[in-house]
């Protein structure tokens, strides 16, 4: 059984994961319209992953005697200034998510809720990977600069970057 305090904190995280999914969906749609099909697929996939992050929280809440609440969501931006500002937004967003996960972990320790603490370790690892991936894309974009050919290649190869980051992860 989880405490009311943990239940509330986990439901705030449900909201953040749902917002993440919506933001990446908006980014996926914009990049698709702009003709970046590879980057668009990458972002659609990320949007789906965020939804899974949200679902895991809802299931955990419900299994532990709480109630996962489905939140209302603000409309994300639907236009972006370019691919690099878009990925900088992704990185900043993921850093924010990591901060919130860390706060949740801290609450669990203070409340001596070791079950939820254990559950959250998956999110701690996931955030390391998500931040690393966004940084990897931004590093490539810095190298590319204004070279349209470079951007074309990144669009073609972006899904392989994800595989490279996952392969480097300690499991
Ligand atoms: Fe589920 Fe990207 O945070």
Identify the bound ligands.
MU-OXO-diiron
For the secondary structure, the number of strands is 0
Q: Low-confidence parts, pLDDT < 50 over ≥5 residues?
A: none
Number of domains: 1
Reported for the largest beta sheet, the result is: none
Number of discrete helical segments: 5
Just give the CATH class: Mainly Alpha
Strand content: under 5%
Share of residues in helices: over 70%
CATH fold description: Ferritin
Report the C-alpha radius of gyration, rounded: 17 Å
CATH superfamily placement: Ferritin, core subunit, four-helix bundle
* Termini separation: 29 Å
CATH architect. name: Up-down Bundle
Average of the residue pLDDT scores? 95
> What is the helix/strand order?
HHHHH
Determine the structural class based on helices, strands and strand pairing.
Answer: mainly alpha
Structural shape: elongated
């Amino acid at each position: 059984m989880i405490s009311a305090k943990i239940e509330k904190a986990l439901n705030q995280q449900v909201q953040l994961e749902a917002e993440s999914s919506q933001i990446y969906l908006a980014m996926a749609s914009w990049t698709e319209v702009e003709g970046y099909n590879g980057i668009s697929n990458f972002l659609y996939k990320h949007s789906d992953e965020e939804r899974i992050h949200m679902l895991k929280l809802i299931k955990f809440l419900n299994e532990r005697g709480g109630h996962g609440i489905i939140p209302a969501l603000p409309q994300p931006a639907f236009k972006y200034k370019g691919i690099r500002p878009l990925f900088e937004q992704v990185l900043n967003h993921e850093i924010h998510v990591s901060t919130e996960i860390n706060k949740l972990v801290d609450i669990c320790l203070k409340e001596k809720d070791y079950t939820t603490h254990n559950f959250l370790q998956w999110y701690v690892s996931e955030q390391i990977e998500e931040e690393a991936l966004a940084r990897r894309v931004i590093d490539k974009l810095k190298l590319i600069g204004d070279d349209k050919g470079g951007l074309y290649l990144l669009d073609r190869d972006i899904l392989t970057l994800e595989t490279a980051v996952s392969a480097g992860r300690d499991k």
